[in-house]
C-alpha cells in the first residue's frame, strides 16, 4: 500500500464547526499581518479561530475579528493583545470577490484554518459561506447517521 504524503504545512488552528454552520463556497488563502510575539505564540499552537470572522472595510481592507492568539509567555512589555484586529493580506481581485459576496449575496467570510505554509509563513484559509438553517443542519446529521448505519449493516452482512 502506498504511504500517505505528509502535508507541507503545520496546522495551528482549525475551525471544524464552520462546515456544520455554513454552506462553504469559494475559498481563499490570505496572509496575516502579525507582530513578532504573535508568530512565536502561534508556533506553540494554542490559537483559536472558532468564533472569529472577517470583514471588508470601506478602504478595501480585510480584517480578522475576534481571533484569539494568546500572549507569548516569554514576551516582555512588547507583548500583543490576544484579541486585536489583524489585517489579512489579499490581492485586490480577491478582496473585490469577498466584498461582492458579502454585500450582494448576504454571505459571511468564515476563517477555516490557520497554518504555517512550507516557507514558514502564517496563512489563513478563509471561505465565503452562507449560514445554514436549523432544518438543514438536521438533514445533514440524518444523512451522516444513515451512512454510518448503512456501513455497519454491510459490514455485518459479510
TrEMBL record:
<protein>
    <recommendedName>
        <fullName>SsrA-binding protein</fullName>
    </recommendedName>
</protein>
<dbReference type="InterPro" id="IPR020081">
    <property type="entry name" value="SsrA-bd_prot_CS"/>
</dbReference>
<dbReference type="GO" id="GO:0003723">
    <property type="term" value="F:RNA binding"/>
</dbReference>
<dbReference type="GO" id="GO:0005829">
    <property type="term" value="C:cytosol"/>
</dbReference>
<comment type="function">
    <text>Required for rescue of stalled ribosomes mediated by trans-translation. Binds to transfer-messenger RNA (tmRNA), required for stable association of tmRNA with ribosomes. tmRNA and SmpB together mimic tRNA shape, replacing the anticodon stem-loop with SmpB. tmRNA is encoded by the ssrA gene; the 2 termini fold to resemble tRNA(Ala) and it encodes a 'tag peptide', a short internal open reading frame. During trans-translation Ala-aminoacylated tmRNA acts like a tRNA, entering the A-site of stalled ribosomes, displacing the stalled mRNA.</text>
</comment>
<keyword id="KW-0694">RNA-binding</keyword>
<dbReference type="InterPro" id="IPR000037">
    <property type="entry name" value="SsrA-bd_prot"/>
</dbReference>
<keyword id="KW-0963">Cytoplasm</keyword>
<comment type="similarity">
    <text>Belongs to the SmpB family.</text>
</comment>
<dbReference type="GO" id="GO:0070930">
    <property type="term" value="P:trans-translation-dependent protein tagging"/>
</dbReference>
<dbReference type="GO" id="GO:0070929">
    <property type="term" value="P:trans-translation"/>
</dbReference>
<dbReference type="InterPro" id="IPR023620">
    <property type="entry name" value="SmpB"/>
</dbReference>
<dbReference type="Pfam" id="PF01668">
    <property type="entry name" value="SmpB"/>
</dbReference>
Amino acid at each position: 500500500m502506498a504511504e500517505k504524503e505528509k502535508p507541507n504545512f503545520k496546522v495551528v488552528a482549525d475551525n471544524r464547526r464552520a462546515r456544520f454552520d455554513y454552506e462553504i463556497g469559494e475559498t481563499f488563502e490570505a496572509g496575516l499581518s502579525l507582530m513578532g510575539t504573535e508568530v512565536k505564540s502561534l508556533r506553540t499552537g494554542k490559537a483559536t479561530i472558532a468564533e472569529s470572522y472577517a470583514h471588508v472595510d470601506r478602504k478595501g481592507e480585510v480584517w480578522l475579528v475576534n481571533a484569539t492568539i494568546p500572549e507569548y509567555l516569554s514576551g516582555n512589555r512588547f507583548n500583543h493583545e490576544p484579541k486585536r484586529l489583524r489585517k489579512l493580506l489579499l490581492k485586490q481581485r480577491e478582496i473585490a470577490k469577498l466584498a461582492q459576496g458579502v454585500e450582494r449575496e448576504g454571505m459571511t467570510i468564515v476563517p477555516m484554518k490557520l497554518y504555517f505554509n512550507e516557507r514558514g509563513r502564517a496563512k489563513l484559509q478563509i471561505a465565503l459561506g452562507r449560514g445554514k438553517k436549523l432544518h438543514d443542519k438536521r438533514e445533514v446529521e440524518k444523512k451522516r447517521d444513515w451512512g454510518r448505519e448503512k456501513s455497519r449493516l454491510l459490514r455485518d452482512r459479510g
